[in-house]
Amino acid sequence: MKKQIVAALAGIVVVGVAGWYFLKAENPVAEANAPTKTPVATVTTVSAKQMNVPIRLDANGYVSSLNSVEIRPQVTNVVAKVHIKEGQFVKAGDLLFSLDDRADRVNLQMAQAQLAKDQAGLADLERQLARSKELLAKGFIAQSATDTVQTQVEAQRAALQADKAAVEAARVALGYDSIRATSAGRAGVIAVFPGSLVQPTATAVPLVTISQLDPIAVTFTLPETELNALLAAQKTGDVKVHAKVQGAQSQLEGKLSFIDNTVDTQNGTIKVKAIFPNAEHLLWPGQYVAVNTVVRELGNAIVIPQSAIITGIDAKSVYTVGADQTAQPRRVELLYSFATQAAVKGIQAGERVVVDGKQNLRPGTKVREAEASNNGNDRGNDIGAKGTQKSAS
């Protein structure tokens, strides 16, 4: 009896399985059209923001002194005394070197003595002329005698002028024996010592070089495409330039002072110069520094994080999330990048762009936004924008 029941159950199972295979074979289209569950991707998004974006130009510049003077003698002489030390700061008019002035002092004394002699001679001739005029008036002498004395007086006066010029020339020659600073600055290497013979030749080594350090200049180049913006900014007011120097707590701030009158045709750049206050001597002649300046801005630009941009072979794109919570690719044009942000063209302010999770997306993919991460990205976007505005101020 039991064997019959088991055999009946087995027959029922066989018939059921055969029927299932029959129905599957008869309706393959229904199985293919059966709905499948679409996966949902988890992403973080950021809202695109609209703001004015300053265009910061970065460059490398070199520091140079505004006034660097090579001190050279104007006469051939021997150094008697050196009054400064290497690296000393001097003011305009400070005595730097004294040359042997004994011969020049004697020449000055001789010129002064000749001047005094001719002054006495002139006084005597003027008295003779006065007496001659009195005698001429009384008819005791001829007019020619008076004229002769008058000529002698005029000649003596001319000689007196020559004597005065000789005295001034002797004073000038004596002044060359005292070499003074023509401008304020820092003294460099001193090339002479007491007893050294110096000569006023262009090939001779300068006695010392005085370089002005405060204020100081930084020269750098910018692309010629920014020339019009540079000129326009300079007309409207002071163009601020910032320099980053190692050891300084913050960037140093200067002002644009010069734009060259010629564009370099070889590399397409324009040379510019900025003046920096340098009381702490953080900038040094010959030093290379990184500088930046802002001469224009993108008005009402759309700003998104750079991490949201997908770089393709021939284009850049982002994924945006619509109201139906589906992701769609959008082609964008990168206008300018700064810090972690980027100004783009191709989307509107307020649109949500995907920052994290882009690798799992396809056009039309359903997405679920991670709120905590999204808030963090919004804060990063705000901070990046504020930091850029601050650097432009």
UniProtKB/TrEMBL annotation:
InterPro entries: MdtA-like_b-barrel, MdtA-like_BSH, MdtA-like_C, MdtA-like_HH, RND_pump_MFP. Residues 67-210 form the Multidrug resistance protein MdtA-like barrel-sandwich hybrid domain. Residues 358-393 are annotated as: Disordered. Residues 108-135 form a coiled coil. GO terms for cellular component: efflux pump complex. SUPFAM superfamilies: HlyD-like secretion proteins. It is found in: Cell membrane. The keyword Transport applies. Pfam families: Beta-barrel_RND (PF25944), BSH_RND (PF25917), HH_MFP_RND (PF25876), RND-MFP_C (PF25967). It comes from the Bacteria. One of its GO terms (molecular function) is efflux transmembrane transporter activity. Residues 215-292 form the Multidrug resistance protein MdtA-like beta-barrel domain. Residues 108-176 form the Multidrug resistance protein MdtA-like alpha-helical hairpin domain. Keywords: Cell inner membrane, Cell membrane, Coiled coil, Membrane, Transmembrane, Transmembrane helix, Transport. Residues 300-359 form the Multidrug resistance protein MdtA-like C-terminal permuted SH3 domain. The chain crosses the membrane at residues 5-23. Belongs to the membrane fusion protein (MFP) (TC 8.A.1) family. NCBIfam families: RND_mfp. This is Efflux RND transporter periplasmic adaptor subunit. It comes from Noviherbaspirillum cavernae.
